[in-house]
Design brief:
Layout: H1 7-21, E1 27-31, E2 34-38, E3 48-51, H2 58-63, E4 73-77, E5 88-98, E6 110-112, H3 115-129, H4 135-147, E7 151-158, E8 161-171, E9 174-182, H5 191-206, E10 210-214, H6 219-223, E11 228-237
Parallel strand pairs: 3-4, 9-10
Antiparallel strand pairs: 1-2, 2-3, 4-11, 5-10, 5-11, 6-7, 7-8, 8-9
Helix pairs in contact: 1-4, 3-4
Length: about 240
């Protein structure tokens, strides 16, 4: 299996692949400097390219992995270059990493392990993160999150009610933190930071860093929790998509 040399980037790539493969009909193809996923549903979560190639023709190399195919989304680690002049640069995500040297006291995260519990927490996450998405796309995200068993789902309960959740994905060199979400009426109380600290503590005890991806406006919040930027991920949209 080909993977990026950086374990933090590898974690993000493998998380994308795990979610895509959780849906029926997904094909994933790997090569030394990239990964491509294709699914008959042709949704962004299952029809994408991730490339970390140094080649000026990285985009052409990536889309050639499947015949007569244009991905819905292209993720580019590193310079976009002139080869993608026609791609719309939708946004840039920051890849952050942290290493916590002093583990803290445990914070209660409830693992969601049954199919029903995973489906419920996946719907909870999608309802917060993807409320404005098209119904078909949102359902696909929910299904992928619930079915990708390599991605562990956790909740925080208050009075028996789910008030926060997070998805964790362990790869050999990193612990990925994804879909951290808190219900609106519980925000601003330090709950999200407590969850992050617990994940950092678990990663510290395992001897690996925590890695995550986020929009630019969230970077200062994570920096206050000890994260640093290790890479940027350009999110590009081909014209046919």
């Amino acid at each position: 299996m080909s993977s990026p040399a950086d374990p933090s980037i590898e974690n993000v790539v493998e998380t994308y692949a795990a979610l895509a493969l959780a849906l029926d009909g997904t094909e994933v193809r790997r090569w030394e400097t990239g990964i491509a996923a294709r699914n008959p549903a042709d949704l962004p979560s299952t029809s994408f390219v991730v490339s970390w190639s140094d080649s000026p023709s990285w985009y052409e190399e990536a889309v050639s992995r499947f015949e007569r195919w244009t991905p819905k989304i292209v993720y580019r680690v590193g310079p976009v270059g002139l080869a993608t002049d026609e791609l719309w640069h939708a946004q840039t995500l920051s890849l952050l990493e942290s290493r916590l040297l002093d583990p803290e006291e445990p914070f209660t995260l409830v693992p969601e392990e049954t199919p029903q519990d995973r489906a419920e927490v996946a719907a909870f996450m999608a309802g917060i993160f993807f409320e404005g998405q098209q119904p078909e796309r949102r359902r696909a995200i929910e299904q992928a999150t619930a079915r990708a068993l390599r991605c562990r789902l956790y909740s925080v309960l208050e009075g028996g009610r789910r008030v926060a959740a997070v998805m964790l994905h362990r790869t050999p060199g990193a612990l990925g933190l994804y879909n951290l979400c808190v219900v609106p009426w519980m925000r601003g109380r330090g709950l999200g930071a407590s969850i992050v600290r617990q994940v950092q503590t678990d990663a510290s005890r395992a001897g690996v860093p925590v890695v995550l991806q986020c929009r630019a406006e969230l970077v200062p919040w994570y920096r206050r929790l000890g994260f640093r930027t290790v890479a940027e991920l350009a999110v590009l949209v081909p014209p046919a998509a």
